[in-house]
Amino acid sequence: MCGLLATTLLYASDAYPPPAFTDTTRASKLAAAMPEIDRIFERYAADHKISGMVWGVVIDGKLAHVQATGVRDRDANAPVTSDTVFRIASMTKSFTSLAVLKLRDEGRLSLEDPVGKWIPEFAKMELPTRDTAPLRIRNILSHSAGFPEDNPWGDQQLAASDADLTKWLQKGIPFSTAPGTRYEYSNYAFGLLGRIVTKASGVPYETYVRTQILAKLHMDNSTFEFSQVPASTRATGYRLQPDGTYLAEAPLPHGAFGAMGGLLTTASDLGKYVAFHLSAWPPRDDADNGPVRRASVREMAHLWTSANLTAKAGQATESGYGYGMRVSVDCRFEHIVAHGGGLPGFGSYMAWLPEYGVGMFAMANQTYVGPAEPINLAWDVFLKTGALRKRELPASPALRKMRENIAALWNQWDEDKAKQFAAMNFFLDTPAPQRKADMQKLKDEVGECGAGSVMAENWLRGQFNMTCAKGTVGVFFTLAPTQPPALQHLEFRKLVSPGIRMGAPTGAPAGVSCAP
To answer: Longest Cα pair distance anywhere in the chain, in angstroms?
Structure first.
C-alpha cells in the first residue's frame, strides 16, 4: 500500500501542476486583431488572383473566427462560405498518422514493425546498401524512408488502384538516400501507410478514418469521395493560366493514394480538427476522451526527422517532420506545428502553436497556392496584441519548498541546514566557505531584501527575484533527480532589470530568441 501511495503522489497534479493562461482578457485582445488579419488574407488572395479562399482562427478549443473571399465556382459566381468543401491534399497525411497511432495504441501494430510485415512485397525489395536496416513504419511516418521526393508525380496518383500499387511494389522502389539518414518528402510513403491501416484495421483505410476519427470529431461534412460532395457546397478547383484565364481542373477520384492527400473538408470541420490537436496540450490528468490519446497527438508534433535551417529577413527557422506534421522553431516561437497541401485545383495550409492555444488554417481553390504566408504574417499581428503568450507554469511544491530554504539561507547562513536540502554535488562544486563569502559580499552591496514568488521554467528549475534596498537580486536554482529533489545548482546575481530571466549556465533552455 505504501508503495502504491508513493507512486500515486509522484504523478499527481498537485506535484506536477499543468501550465495555464493567466490573462483573462486574452480572447478579447486576440479578437480585436481579426480585422487586420482578414485584410492580410484578402490582400494575399487578391495578389495571387485566387478565385476563392476561406480562413479560420481557433482559440482555446473553438473556431473563434472564420472569413472568406471570392467564389467557389466561377461559372455560378457562388461565394465561398464556412461550409464550402475544399480538397486539402497533403494535410490528409496528419489524419493518416492519427489512424496509424490509434492502431498502435490499440496494440494492433507497432511503429517498429518492419514494413514487410504488412506489405509482403517489401520482403523481396532490393535495398540500396547491404547494411540497410529493415524499413520500419516510423520511417515512412517521418519521411526518413529514403524514397525520392515525389510531389509532381505523386499528385497525379490519387486515383491509383490497389492493383496499380501492388504492381509498382512488385517492381521495387528506387531510393534517393539511404533509409534512416535524412529527410525526404514522400507521397508514396503515405500511400503505403494507407495500405497498412487497411490491413491492421481489417477495413478499408477511408472507412477506418471516417468511423474512428472524422465521425468522433463530428467532422460530418468531410469525405474522401469528391462525387459525394453536393454541387451546392463543392469548391471547383482552378489553375491560373499564364494569360490570366482560369482553367477548371478535373477532380481526382479517391484511390489507393488517398491516404497521402485525398480528404475534402470545410472550414467548420477543419476548425474542429485544429481544436482537437490543440487540446492535447498541456499534459494533464483530466479525462482523455479524444479519438486518439493526447500523448499520441503530442508525439505527432515532435520533430523526428530534421530537414533544414533557413534564414530569411533576419529570421532563422529550423524545421523538420514529425508524424504527418511539419514541426519548426523560429525566433518567435519554439514550437510550430503545421502542414500544407497542394493538388491540381487546390492549395491549403494549417498551423498551430500548441503552448499558446491558437491555430489557423486557410483553404483555396487554386492549384498549389499555399497560404502559409498570410498565416505567418498573422502570427505577428497576434503578437502585437500582447495576448499571444504561452501558458504560465505554476511553481511545483518542490520549487516552492526550495525557495523557502534558499530565502532562509540568504537571511541567515546555516551550513548544517543547507546540507539537509543540498544535493551531494552542491558543496563539492563550490565549498561552503566560498558560497558563504560570495553571498555575504552581495548582501553587503544590495542591503535588505524581500523574496518574491518562483517563476518556474519547469517542475524542477526556476527563478525568484529578491527586491532589495539597492536593486534586484535574481536567484536561479535547479533541483537534482533525487527523491526528494535536492538543490544541485544555485546562483545569485544582481539584475539590471527585474524582467531578466537568468537561465542555467549548463545550456538549459530559457526560451527562444534571435536577438544579438
So the answer is: 85
DSSP-assigned letter for residue 366: B
Q: Exposed (0-12), middle (13-18) or buried (19+): which is 84, by Cβ within 10 Å?
A: buried
> Cα–Cα distance between 469 and 448 in angstroms, integer?
6
Start-end of H helices in 67-141: 92-105, 115-118, 137-141
Is the distance from CB of 226 to CB of 254 less than 8 angstroms? yes
Cα 498 to Cα 512: distance, rounded to the nearest angstrom: 19
Q: What are phi and psi of 117, to 5 degrees?
A: -65, -35
- pLDDT, tens digit, for every residue of 232-250? 999 999 999 999 999 999 9
Q: Does 48 score more than 90 pLDDT? A: yes
Per-residue pLDDT reduced to its tens digit, 246-275: 999 998 888 999 999 999 999 999 999 999
Are the C-beta atoms of 418 and 411 separated by less than 8 Å?
no
What burial class does residue 149 get, using C-beta atoms within 10 Å of its C-beta: 0-12 exposed, 13-18 middle, 19+ buried? middle
Nearest to 188 by CA among 222, 145, 227: 145
Q: What are the chain's domains? A: 397-495 (3.10.450)
Q: Which of 354, 357, 321, 325 is nearest to 341 (CA)?
A: 325
**Could you tell me if residue 180 is left (phi over 0), alpha (psi between -120 and 50 degrees) or otherwise beta?**
left
For 24, the grid coordinates are 483573462
Whole-model pTM?
Answer: 0.93
How many whole angstroms separate alpha carbon 238 and alpha carbon 76? Answer: 14
Q: What angle separates helix 187-201 from helix 162-171, to the nearest 10 degrees?
A: 120
